Amino acid sequence: MELVAEREKVAEGETVMKIKKPVIKPKPQVVYEFDISNINVFYGEAQILKDINMKIEPRSITALIGPSGCGKSTFLRMLNRMNDTIDGFSFNGTVLHKGSNIYDKKTQVEDLRKKVGMVFQKPNPFPKSIYENVIYGLRLNGVRNKSVLDEAVEKALKQAALWNEVKDDLKKSALALSGGQQQRLCIARTIAVEPEVILMDEPASALDPISTAKIEELVFDLQQKYTFIVVTHNMHQASRISQKTAFFHMGDLIEYGDTETIFTKPSQKLTENYITGRFG
């Protein structure tokens, strides 16, 4: 580090060196999409998640893998407080979303769910038109201007790679769409309210291979704008779409790291046994 010195005359005519100390700027604090610390989740007496610690970066794709009943979906629902509606749910620990504790008493759950949207395992369009499905959340938020709604519909359907397929049939019932189209419509409905995070609970498990490929491509394309956290039982899918993978087993987070490392050089034998199909 270069020190800058300048000469300064003093009253006696002597010359001394005046040293300017370099300014050391503090490193900017990393703000994670989610910073999860020491989480334990219970349904009644049963402990579902055990001392979970995880940091999730913004605009990343994280896959959650593990056998059925290991706590993946509970972990996912914890991130937008959907577990709050389950009888007997309790937890301790800290879940920060961009530095704010989402379980703080002052947290407005409705506002949280605008920021952290969710797409479920089976497509769940409402028995309404395609148009009304997309703007459902906007209407709940009080948006009434038709030009604003029209623009939001087109934008969301384009982002969901569905616009060209339905643009001439926006008044058509959403229930008339194919399964893959319905799932992309649900994604459009989620992103219409412009969230920051999209949670996905096995979004392609009920779809055919072609529709599954479209969903995966869509997630990959939308990563530039959203953070994705995806529960999947499909090991190939997890390895294709994610940058980070978390392996859960019986409520424990066994291993969490770069997807390539998890699938090629896992540090835990249990992880290796699961991804190679020895159990699950």
From TrEMBL:
<dbReference type="InterPro" id="IPR003593">
    <property type="entry name" value="AAA+_ATPase"/>
</dbReference>
<dbReference type="GO" id="GO:0005524">
    <property type="term" value="F:ATP binding"/>
</dbReference>
<keyword id="KW-0592">Phosphate transport</keyword>
<dbReference type="GO" id="GO:0035435">
    <property type="term" value="P:phosphate ion transmembrane transport"/>
</dbReference>
<feature type="domain" description="ABC transporter">
    <location>
        <begin position="34"/>
        <end position="275"/>
    </location>
</feature>
<dbReference type="InterPro" id="IPR027417">
    <property type="entry name" value="P-loop_NTPase"/>
</dbReference>
<protein>
    <submittedName>
        <fullName>Phosphate transport ATP-binding protein PstB</fullName>
    </submittedName>
</protein>
<dbReference type="InterPro" id="IPR003439">
    <property type="entry name" value="ABC_transporter-like_ATP-bd"/>
</dbReference>
<dbReference type="GO" id="GO:0016020">
    <property type="term" value="C:membrane"/>
</dbReference>
<dbReference type="InterPro" id="IPR017871">
    <property type="entry name" value="ABC_transporter-like_CS"/>
</dbReference>
<dbReference type="GO" id="GO:0005315">
    <property type="term" value="F:phosphate transmembrane transporter activity"/>
</dbReference>
<dbReference type="GO" id="GO:0016887">
    <property type="term" value="F:ATP hydrolysis activity"/>
</dbReference>
<keyword id="KW-0547">Nucleotide-binding</keyword>
<dbReference type="InterPro" id="IPR005670">
    <property type="entry name" value="PstB-like"/>
</dbReference>
<dbReference type="Pfam" id="PF00005">
    <property type="entry name" value="ABC_tran"/>
</dbReference>
<keyword id="KW-0813">Transport</keyword>
<keyword id="KW-0067">ATP-binding</keyword>
